[in-house]
Specification:
Structural class of chain A: mainly alpha
Radius of gyration of chain A: 24 Å
Order of helices and strands of chain A: HHHHHHHHHHHH
Order of helices and strands of chain B: HHEHEEHEEEHHHHHHHH
Number of domains of chain B: 2
CATH class of the domain at 93-258 and 286-297 in chain A: Mainly Alpha
CATH topology of the domain at 93-258 and 286-297 in chain A: MetI-like fold
Number of helices of chain B: 12
Largest interface: A-B, 41 and 34 residues
Radius of gyration of chain B: 30 Å
CATH class of the largest domain in chain B: Mainly Alpha
Oligomer: heterodimer
Largest sheet of chain A: none
Shape of chain B: elongated
Strand order of the largest sheet of chain B: 2-3-5-4
Number of strands of chain B: 6
Shape of chain A: flat
Helix content of chain A: over 70%
Structural class of chain B: alpha+beta
Helix content of chain B: 55-70%
Number of strands of chain A: 0
CATH topology of the largest domain in chain B: MetI-like fold
Chain lengths: 304, 375
């Protein structure tokens, strides 16, 4: 197992390298630059700025400098958020986004898994149709519709929860629910489909014939049914933990999600690269975790 | 698929092709049929509805900003007289004895000095009234009896923050959103199917290289990718959809590659290879047509995904530009003014959600109908 993990880490290095290279040159060939304001800066000022940020060097040299800095763990200073380094921005935003994402993921896993299991046990019943309908609902309603509706209903009409902000635990409820809703739908759907298949398999039939209680049957079936859900969870966790622009904008949360948009729009080269590296690392890390989880759940899978 | 061999002895028994079979089973799926009907009516409404609403989608009614949705005609009777009095003030006269008779407002204007009748055009310029007609002049033009027709307008869905008819805008937005969905999906399918089929059929090193590229694109942050494309192509309507399609082909390529891997082991492909059919011919004639089942299913699920993506971009302000509009734009405008004018969120959301629901049900129905295990 250890050698498997090590090998995966080693094979991830060229992937990250390629991703960094592609996005570095992609953002650099994009028209416009970080200091293009509505009123153009004076030529001298521009020249100085470009020299300070080393933008006057040849592109390939800048690329080398960036790679060297990245290897030292230095993401560089932000071009747009003056006086901040990318590391500082992430150190502030990432805990917020990760808290939200982890809570949403947990909520989605528990409710989605439970709903899917119940629906699979009672296939073609009212509960099943309700879960399927809810799944379609959660998948089709965009989160920028869900969020304001939740704000209005629970924040303003009922006045149970704050409409936004960051700080108290109660202010987390609405954004977490908004984030979790589409994931609940997907997980419920996947759990239902794979549970139905698992419940038809031979070993479950044997358990049933032994007259075991439903809870034990469900536990055994869940183990087999969890595999597709687990493989979905890898990319989903990476996406959730790195923040959501929409949810963070609507609820006024200081997460990292908005940096994805602001970085690219303002040509904040270092910020863009930071977000790219962040997502790539999360995706690779969670895919690795998924593979390990696979081996733990399914004894037939071996990583030697 | 369609040219399945029909044995001459069984001339009376017509064979059922996969597609005929699938169509029959789709038609038995009530949710899918209902969804098809919903989708068809929404599409027709969006195509032809804007012609019938009586409002151009970009016409601004300054006097009806954020008029709430209602079945009754505007203006309300209690708004007519105050509006007329305001206009009379601009004509430098006082309105007296205002009476509403059906669609006609009778009014007497009095002033200290003779009234300049050219100023009566102010009535016509308002959204409430038509051109005023002078019935009677007296006191050397200081007293005018006039008749002003009241222009009754219907805003079934209300008007937006600029005073534009929301029904027309919702329908026009539907054209844009549906067109985006179809165009981007078409691009995604063309790229994805070709890429996946080539990678899967050629196999070996080519496959490894091509799919590694897909993996790398997968690990790039999606938003970054989309925004980069928007930045490159500017805010061009058509190019942006092509760009969105160019992002969404990755899943399609994987699905088609998986299908191709099993198809290329089939006897008919080996027969074609043995007969010396060129590779491009085999891919075009044998591989791609046989991958279409899953592709069609994925397509119906991709269209809603693209529509959602477009609304997400519009929410960020990167999507369709004014005065053109899409459901995403309308919804984000509605979300901003939800407190005073909830109808601005409700109507476009209803259309978007109904369309997405319908497409999802059709996709599910197609998947069940095309699933050979499920007969």
């Amino acid at each position: 197992m250890l050698s498997f993990v090590l090998r995966r880490f080693l094979s991830a290095i060229p992937t990250v390298f390629l991703i960094v290279t592609i996005s570095f040159f992609l953002i650099r060939v994009a028209p416009g630059g970080p200091f293009d304001l509505e009123q153009p800066l004076e030529a001298r000022v521009m020249e100085n700025l470009r020299r300070i940020y080393q933008l006057d060097r040849p592109l390939i040299e800048q690329y080398g400098l960036y790679l060297a800095a990245l290897l030292r763990g230095d993401f560089g200073p932000s071009f747009y958020f003056r006086d901040f380094t990318i590391a500082e921005l992430f150190a502030r935003g990432l805990p917020v986004s990760m808290t939200l994402g982890a809570l949403a993921l947990g909520l989605a896993l528990i409710t989605g898994g439970a709903l899917g299991t119940v629906a699979a046990f009672r296939q073609n019943s009212t509960i099943d149709y309700a879960v399927t309908g809810l799944g379609a609902f959660g998948l089709t309603i965009p989160n920028f519709v869900v969020a304001p509706v939740l704000q209005i209903v629970f924040g303003l009409m009922l006045a149970w929860l704050p409409v936004g902000g960051w700080g108290s635990p109660s202010s987390l409820v609405l954004p977490v629910v908004t984030l979790a809703l589409p994931q609940v739908a997907v997980i419920a759907r996947m759990t239902r489909a794979s549970m139905i298949e698992a419940l038809r398999s031979n070993h479950i039939r044997t358990l049933r014939s032994l007259g075991l209680p439903t809870s034990i049957i469900a536990r055994h079936a869940l183990r087999a049914a969890a595999l597709p859900v687990v493989s979905y969870l890898g990319p989903a966790a990476a996406a959730l933990l790195t923040g959501s622009v929409v949810v963070e904008t609507i609820f006024g949360l200081p997460g990292v999600g908005r940096y994805f948009v602001e970085g690219a729009l303002n040509r904040d080269y270092t910020l863009v690269m930071g977000t790219v590296v962040l997502v790539a690392v999360f995706v690779l890390l969670f895919n690795l975790l998924v593979d390990i989880a696979y081996a733990l759940i399914d004894p037939r899978v071996r990583h030697d | 698929m369609t040219e399945a061999a029909v044995l001459p002895i069984a001339a009376t028994v017509s064979g059922r092709s996969l597609w005929a079979d699938a169509r029959r089973r789709l038609m038995r799926n009530k949710a899918a049929v209902a969804s098809l009907a919903v989708l068809a009516s929404i599409t027709l409404a969006c195509l032809f509805g804007p012609l019938a609403t009586g409002h151009p989608y970009d016409r601004v009614y300054q006097d009806y900003v954020r008029a709430p949705s209602s079945l009754a005609a505007h203006p309300r009777d209690d708004r007519v007289v105050p509006a007329a009095e305001r206009i009379a003030a601009r004509v430098r006269a006082r309105a007296e004895a205002a009476r509403i008779e059906g669609d006609l407002l009778r009014l007497i204007l009095t002033a200290q000095r003779p009234i300049d009748e050219r100023n009566l055009a102010f009535f016509d310029r308002s959204d409430l009234f038509g051109p005023a007609r002078v019935v009677e002049r007296s006191e050397e033009g200081r007293r005018l009896a006039i008749e002003v027709p009241i222009e009754r307008r219907h805003f079934l869905f209300g008007t937006d923050a600029n005073g534009r008819d929301l029904l027309t805008r919702t329908l026009v937005a539907g054209r844009v959103s549906l067109a985006i969905g179809l165009l981007a999906t078409a691009v995604a399918i063309v790229i994805g199917v070709l890429y996946g089929a080539v990678a899967g059929y050629l196999g070996g090193r080519t496959d490894l290289l091509l799919m590694r590229f897909v993996d790398i694109l997968y690990s790039l942050p999606f938003i970054f990718f989309v925004i980069m494309l928007v930045v490159f192509f500017g805010r061009n309507f058509v190019l942006m959809f092509l760009a969105v399609g160019a992002v969404e082909w990755l899943d399609m390529a994987r699905i088609v590659r998986g299908q191709t891997l099993s198809i290329k082991r089939q006897e008919y492909v080996q027969a074609a290879e043995a007969l010396g059919v060129p590779t491009a011919g085999i891919i075009r004639r044998h591989v791609i047509p046989n991958t279409l089942g899953p592709v069609v299913v994925y397509m119906t699920l991709l269209v809603p995904k693209v529509i959602l993506l477009e609304s997400f971009l519009s929410f960020l302000g990167l999507g369709v530009q004014e005065p053109m509009t899409s459901w995403g734009v309308l919804i984000s405008e509605g979300a901003r003014s939800i407190q005073g004018a909830a109808y601005m969120l409700i109507f476009p959301s209803f259309f978007l959600v109904a369309t997405l629901f319908a497409l999802n049900f059709i996709g599910d129905g197609l998947r069940d109908a095309l699933d050979p295990k499920d007969r």
